[in-house]
Amino acid sequence: MSNEYIDTNIQAGLDWFSANNWNPFQFQKKAWHKYLTGYSGLINAPTGFGKTYSLIIPILIEALTDTSKSKKGLRAIWIAPIRALTKEIQISCQRAIEGLDLDWRVEVRSGDTSTAQRKKQLSDPPEILITTPESLHIIIASKGYAQYFKSLNAVVVDEWHELMGSKRGVQMELAISRLRGIRQALKVWGISATIENIDQASEILLGPGFDKNKKVIIKSNIKKHISVETILPDEIEKYPWTGHMGLKLLERVIPIINKSQSTILFTNTRAQCEIWYHKLLEVDPTLAGNLAMHHGSLSKEIREWVEDALHEGRIKAVVSTSSLDLGVDFRPVDSIVQIGSPKGVSRFVQRAGRSGHRPLAVSKIYFVPTHSLEIIEGGALRTAIARGIQEPRIPFIRSYDVLIQYLMTLAVSDGFEEEMIFNEVKNTFCFASIERKEWEQILDFLVTGGSSLSAYNEYQKVIVDNKIFRVVDRKIARKHRMSIGTIVGSSSINVAFVNGRRLGSIEEYFVSSMSPGDVFWFAGQTLEYIRIKDMTVQVRKSKKKKARVHSWMGGRVPLSSTLSQLIREKLNNYTHNIIEEVELDVLTPLLDQQAEQSHLPNEHEFLIEYFSSKEGCHVLFYPFEGRYVHEGMGALLAQRISERYNITFTIAMNDYGFELLSDQDVNLSVLTHELFSTKNLVLDIQNSLNSIEMARRKFRDIAKISGLIFQGYPGKYKKERHLQSSSSLIFDVFRSYDPDNLLYLQTYDEVMTFQFEESRLRSSLNRIQNQKIIITQPNNFTPFSFPIVVDRLREKLSSERLVDRVKKMIREIKN
């Protein structure tokens, strides 16, 4: 197409914008032009500036100029990582379709879509399908899927930054490689609001071999203004502990809700979401009817009601998890409250962007720390935003479990010719380094189960028929289609009233701990457990005041490297009497207490504390590098010290430091720079018992994704302990008899890369090598050590007993 022809057709988009009293931004017009000239690429712009319209408009303009005879069929796939976002995209697409007078349908396919609607979408596809990575793979698992995509012109991956740092991103890489095999002229675009490593993000999305002359990264030059305010307590607790202070500040959050048009309160966990919802109503009953809750375990009906009510301004506030994080446009929302550390700058900015979700509007976010030390993060976050600093996303590479699942998906549909698929797979970022030998090992695994499982028929899933790898067993095909996806978690059971109205789902382990008559909080209600019937927990409302809180399984998110670095910077500033933020100023009592009782390290020092208590001998280390790095460093140091003399440790950690606890005296002479050497780092960590157990737990997820273990049919899910037992057995078989198995090797790679954050761990160890080690011997717990010890006790004690224990510990310190 000539530029003149394209400019003429772009006028339709400009006219529609003008009719809505909008002026397109430069990045939008550039995206329209690049799309219509056949480019693929990535769009990077702040939240609330119309990134959706930067791509939906050229997709529709392309249809207006289409001279082909076939006007029907799927033309564009729009990938959304969360269900709440799909509705928002659908509304925007429908508005543009009507504005440009196109006879197009736009529909959503997700886990909430009915079976009847899915079947209709396959037989009579809409022109635009908004879906998820999992649902896209389910379509590819259908017979004749290539015909379904024959008219496809574009794939748009929304919030690409959110997907590329997970195995769902790998799913998208593989799906795009197959769609390109079907439609060579396919245009692929990503949308992202918050990402640091944008060049790499583009390479992952498009593939390392993509034509450089047909790819583009479009960045807006617009800056979103974000106002950050930390909610501060009247008195600073010198001995802080996680979660304690947050609820104390609840009464200061209520005025924020009352003065705002609409507020979203973000929590980091579903349990915290449930607690804050109940406590807000308890403190201010007038919020009843104006306060709602939103998280991924609630039923579709509840979630959609909350989203609609928020969008229409019918409710005053919503307590939410990350289920409302991304891209959702709730215009009435003018305030955000972040409860507890967001753990990363990008997540904080993303959540802040849910307010002022309009061009040039200010996003207002309040930070509510849950213990005194978290206060410092408010200043660190404000500094990061002012400097324009955000975190990169670390991509997954060589994720063989996802590749095995993908090949099974192809095998249950029309089968695949291995040479053609190998070339497509090798053009993805994730598998660019795969060798022919590894590929053949994967194929052998699909056909025979591999060298260590070949004696078991259940692992022989694929046959080779005239060079086509396919699944012919209907039972195997059914099991696979039900298992497609890379989001792994504990088995869940539906929760419903006796009349059948569904509330959502809770995890099996929590149900197994309850007896009839037990009362718990869920979906914002106090519920009494009656019975389990047909794999559904039947409940009724309860008026009891005390109730259990379901704590969902899953790892805690660690402090990001960016936020960690800024926290260390703030502490160093304090040691040099540079106090520029109110957060540092109010922390003076705590930091001065730390300095008086032990030491407050500057950037050239590394602090180690050693003292004894009734529990044993405590050694505390403070890298301020996030809990994952601390877990790896703790395992490393425990392993290295035990090699020098016979001693065992219990490891505890938080985002600021870690503890090695022993029932023996610790020889302080071993605490030298040599202990922090990066020499033999991987080998020493892998030799630790902690590493093996972590690998065993990680392998369970890999076994689920790769299909080594089956979680069960709907209503007949296998118990979580049985799944763990099955995966542990296979792990031990690989460990003893097949140590070169790709899934086994992948397990340790993931533990090192994502659990222990190896590159970040190395960087931290190298930094400590250049710091002066300061060893202090305080008489008791210090402000820095106290929250680490309490976190360890939290795993052993009930909430009530923990509070009593903490009070006793503080009395002992003060005496």
Short description, anyone?
The chain contains 32 helices and 29 strands. The chain has a 7-stranded parallel beta sheet with strand order 3-4-2-5-6-1-7, with helices on both faces. A 6-stranded parallel beta sheet has the order 8-13-12-9-11-10, sandwiched between helices. Strands 18-17-21-20-19-22 form a 6-stranded mixed beta sheet. α15 links the parallel β12 (335-339) and β13 (363-368).
Radius of gyration: 27 Å
**Main β-sheet, in a few words?**
7 strands, parallel
> In which range does the helix fraction lie?
40-55%
Structural class: alpha/beta
Approximately what portion of the residues adopt beta-strand conformation?
Answer: 15-25%
Number of helices: 32
Strand order of the largest sheet: 3-4-2-5-6-1-7
Mean pLDDT: 91
Structure description:
This protein is an alpha/beta fold and 815 residues long. It is built from 32 helices and 29 strands. Strands 3-4-2-5-6-1-7 form a 7-stranded parallel beta sheet, sandwiched between helices. Strands 8-13-12-9-11-10 form a 6-stranded parallel beta sheet, with helices on both faces. The chain has a 6-stranded mixed beta sheet with strand order 18-17-21-20-19-22. The protein is globular and about 85 Å long. The relative contact order is 0.08.
